[in-house]
Amino acid sequence: xxxxxxxxxxxxxxxxxxxxxxxxxxxxxxxxxxxxxxxxxxxxxxxxxxxxxxxxxxxxxxxxxxxxxxxxxxxxxxxxxxxxxxxxxxxxxxxxxxxxxxxxxxxxxxxxxxxxxxxxxxxxxxxxxxxxxxxxxxxxxxxxxxxxxxxxxxxxxxxxxxxxxxxxxxxxxxxxxxxxxxxxxxxxxxxxxxxxxxxxxxxxxxxxxxxxxxxxxxxxxxxxxxxxxxxxxxxxxxxxxxxxxxxxxxxxxxxxxxxxxxxxxxxxxxxxxxxxxxxxxxxxxxxxxxxxxxxxxxxxxxxxxxxxxxxxxxxxxxxxxxxxxxxxxxxxxxxxxxxxxxxxxxxxxxxxxxxxxxxxxxxxxxxxxxxxxxxxxxxxxxxxxxxxxxxxxxxxxxxxxxxxxxxxxxxxxxxxxxxxxxxxxxxxxxxxxxxxxxxxxxxxxxxxxxxxxxxxxxxxxxxxxxxxxxxxxxxxxxxxxxxxxxxxxxxxxxxxxxxxxxxxxxxxxxxxxxxxxxxxxxxxxxxxx
Amino acid sequence: xxxxxxxxxxxxxxxxxxxxxxxxxxxxxxxxxxxxxxxxxxxxxxxxxxxxxxxxxxxxxxxxxxxxxxxxxxxxxxxxxxxxxxxxxxxxxxxxxxxxxxxxxxxxxxxxxxxxxxxxxxxxxxxxxxxxxxxxxxxxxxxxxxxxxxxxxxxxxxxxxxxxxxxxxxxxxxxxxxxxxxxxxxxxxxxxxxxxxxxxxxxxxxxxxxxxxxxxxxxxxxxxxxxxxxxxxxxxxxxxxxxxxxxxxxxxxxxxxxxxxxxxxxxxxxxxxxxxxxxxxxxxxxxxxxxxxxxxxxxxxxxxxxxxxxxxxxxxxxxxxxxxxx
Lengths: 529, 326
Prior knowledge:
The complex is a heterodimer of chains A (529) and B (326). Chain A has 529 residues and is an all-alpha fold. Chain A is 71% helix and 2% strand. Chain A has helices spanning 2-27, 38-69, 74-79, 82-85, 88-99, 117-142, 145-153, 158-187, 190-196, 206-216, 222-247, 270-292, 306-313, 315-348, 352-362, 369-380, 402-413, 415-427, 430-438, 443-471, 477-480, 488-498, 501-522, and strands at 384-388, 392-396. Chain A has a two-stranded antiparallel ribbon with strand order 1-2. In chain A, β1 and β2 (392-396) form a beta hairpin. The longest helix of chain A has 34 residues, at 315-348. The mean pLDDT of chain A is 87. In chain B, α2 packs parallel to α4 (136-149). Chain B has helices at residues 40-48, 94-104, 110-120, 136-149, 166-183, 194-200, 218-223, 228-234, and strands at residues 3-12, 14-24, 29-33, 55-60, 63-67, 70-71, 79-82, 154-158, 186-191, 203-208, 211-216, 238-245, 248-250, 254-255, 261-267, 272-275, 279-280, 282-288, 293-299, 302-308, 315-318, 321-323. The longest helix of chain B is centred in the middle third of the chain and has 18 residues, at 166-183. In chain B, the strands form 5 sheets. Chain B has a 6-stranded mixed beta sheet with strand order 7-8-9-3-10-11, sandwiched between helices. Chain B contains 8 helices and 22 strands. Chain B starts with a strand and ends with a strand. Chains A and B meet through α7 and α8 of A and β7, α2 and α4 of B.
């Protein structure tokens, strides 16, 4: 009974806050306002996606190979995820400080311009390269080394074995990762906003065009924004499909889990990982850290905490940081609760209803933030009055409230705890639950004493993932925030446009610290694990 | 000489092989038999070139492949190898699996030879199938065909039957032996299954803790094991106190020169009889096993096994025994 109510409520929430916005997007589909001029944005989006996928592969494949086949220090292995954990707009700020054409720290020696498509590709490619690296590492780890040894004994040299056995076996996983990277690059907003818009000539991409359409005409711009959104969604579908055709690989049953073999020490190959980490996070974070304590931009011979005290005592900034923290914590808690309930139901009591809820809950994750935010605008920019039995009136007035931001954060990242907990539930042998029941524990007692403790790592991991991504969120926030609901990400963008580089660097450091803290929580392991 | 190891040592933190010497004649079927962790698989991987020895030298077909300053890579050793986990490449068809080693060696009519090899392991008609759709036994046949097709100098078998069901194991065991003899191949088999080693091979080396304990023909190992470890590993061991006087050991009726005094004899369950003459004993329990009955017998404080007819007498007569070493 309670169970029915709980899942009924989840169903209503998912319909109102996920199905309705997405349906309104689909229903608003028209080619109104779409002109050939947008072809440039489509082209740039595709170039950005493919370029990013290429760079992420070029960097990620060697790193993944080293991580799978060489014994790396534990800390180095754990650090592989860092470039992905730090939001790309943070590293973008660092690269702006380093390589802007007017007063970039590097530009004095190196004539590079970060305000370009290439700059966007470099920042996003480095940011997303851990996705490829980790996919390659895991895929290689799953390949039984015996398959390669058999090929060696059969007469294949090391390179031929790599080409004929290792890479083909890792290809499906690599293809999935590269498709994800391409889609993520096409959906990215912060990096194109910071780099593409200021380029000369500007480099428009689809997410940026959607934002501009709404910025110029909040109401009249909607049909154009919807049209552009559908083009973006089409690109997001076309890219992975195209890549899969290119790959032309059939899936085959993967080999059994490989027996762990002692790996040779990393030696010089560890420097591949060190060098990549230095470029992708080390240099950017150090640049930001130094800038945030430098009295004069670009001169690092003196130290001051003035920027920190100024920024953190400034009411608007403090309000934004606090609002982001509260919203992120709330969103993480709600997302983990709903995700865990759905995950458990999907694994233990599957039904068509549960499957539909899971489908709805996972859908927003695949939708670019900009597009999801547009759906929210379409659905909730006006008050919704619901009159029940001609008596009670429910008013849903979400526009410009922090609630709408929180709802968007939950919707966007529900898939993270859902998938994570679901995998964990699958790992928990059902017999452990049955054994508890036979030992005399009630259903509730069993959930509390047996199931919950076993799922704790997955719950914590889901919580910190949602927290980190919501805390730093910008592509939805910039569209959904009201005049009085600034958040960390939008404040940072403003400081970057209207403040000093040092002020922006302070906020960027706050983000880095919070992300690292969330990463610590993610790395938590239960005693028995 | 098919394979020769001289003074080969290997350690990973702790020694796995201690100065191992081994000679396998060309065309011989030879088994390395021992419990898990005894170093037998390491020895095989050293021959294959998948590991390098810390000391000593390895010859294949009288060619030095590993030794001081020499390390021929696995692909240049012209070997065939069959692994416990099949190691059939899942992204290649059955035919591609078998033909791949031939193709990369630029063998003319590679595909025809691969088809022929598949036919010999009774997999004709499976050429276009994917390994994922085959049973374990079929996958292992693919692996055997792959190893045979390139006519290797030595066929290395690493626990090739351990993952298979009992019935299939026996069938494939005989097939491998027949195919290897037909082709005149030198075979080096690694196994922990004494029945596999004794039934397939011309000679067997029993290993323990990185050291070869005894090398010999199967019958010799079974009836005259030199150490207690070998005796226990290749069969059931009965040990009984005995007395040596003037080179004759009783009970057992053995002629074994040595100083007078107490010794111990060993014998197999089927090498004794329970009748009216011999050492007095107590039959504690008899278990019908089909073709014979296993009697659990006690002589003093010793528990023994005797296999034979179901009717028994009160005395134990030992018929084929040896003096037990350490």
